[in-house]
Amino acid sequence: MTNRPLRAAGFAVLLTAMALPALAADADPVVATVNGKEIHRSAIQEAQRAIPQLRQVPFEMVYDQLLDHVITTHLLLDQARKMNLENDADVKAAFKDAQNRILEQAFLAKQVDKDISEEAIKKRYEELKKQSTGKEEVKVRHILVDSEDAAKAVIADLKSGVSFEDEAKAKTKDPSGKTNGGELGYITEGDTVPEFSQAAFKLKPGEYSETPVKTQFGWHVIKVEDRRPAQPPAFEQAQGAIKNELAQQDIQKIIERLQKNAQIKRFKADGSPATEAPKQ
């Protein structure tokens, strides 16, 4: 349901990260086996982090989709290894390209760790706290189903007196919703995909959407339980996302510095001399 890339505008991604269920460090159960090989939950979480558009989506919302993805990856890799494709010339060339990209990333990671101090992170944290002043957040539950007709049937049940929590446990596609009654916790406007966010922030506490809400994940019925001023996360919870933001800015500066200090000659696509770009 969510679609929240890291951005400098405020605490949206940070607040959402707080709402995700905390997992014990040693809680990494087996969630599937493929031809006898175990797949652990950590592999599913890593797959989510590798897909930018899903990084800020509540894990439970995309768990089934990600599990299918990881299982498929295992099956394909098994077949590739059986065909000994790691020795294919084209594959070796692709491995070399991947190695170069990893080296680039390792260099940038070391530079960023050196450049970004805790003091800089704290300064940005205080700036974001000021920007969050005046924002509002709502505590929501939702029921996710496959079709508009199914969503209308849910709304009919709610109007007949069925509790939202019981209806969510019985009918939602959201795995966590089947146990917690569809609760998503507090969200700020912009934390979720626009259709969901717009519908949620139109509701008063105790109200639910009487018209099905369509998003890329399916059809939702949304209930708002509370509204309050947005609560910024503690520094310890926010510093990782803030460092990521500062890292993007620092990487741009690193590249600009390298370009400025290097002797670079540019040519046209046909190899003929090109007009040198003016130096900044």
Task: Map the helices and strands.
Blueprint: H1 12-19, E1 30-34, E2 37-40, H2 41-49, H3 59-82, H4 89-115, H5 118-132, E3 136-145, H6 148-159, H7 164-171, H8 177-180, E4 183-188, H9 194-200, E5 213-215, E6 218-229, H10 235-261
Antiparallel strand pairs: 1-2, 3-4, 3-6, 5-6
Helix and strand content put the structural class at alpha+beta
What sequence of helices (H) and strands (E) makes up the elements? HEEHHHHEHHHEHEEH
CATH class of the domain at 134-229: Alpha Beta
Q: Give the beta-strand count.
A: 6
User: Given the structure, what is the number of helices?
Assistant: 10
Query: In percent terms, what proportion of residues is strand?
Result: 5-15%
Overview of this protein structure:
- The protein has 280 residues and is α+β, with helices and mostly antiparallel strands.
- It has a domain at 134-229: Roll (Chitinase A, domain 3).
- It is 50% helix and 14% strand.
- It contains 10 helices and 6 strands.
- The chain has helices at residues 12-19, 41-49, 59-82, 89-115, 118-132, 148-159, 164-171, 177-180, 194-200, 235-261, and strands at 30-34, 37-40, 136-145, 183-188, 213-215, 218-229.
- A 4-stranded antiparallel beta sheet has the order 4-3-6-5. Strands 1-2 form a two-stranded antiparallel sheet.
- α1 packs across α10, α2 packs across α3 and α4 crosses α10 (235-261).
- The longest helix has 27 residues, at 89-115.
- The radius of gyration is 24 Å and the shape is extended.
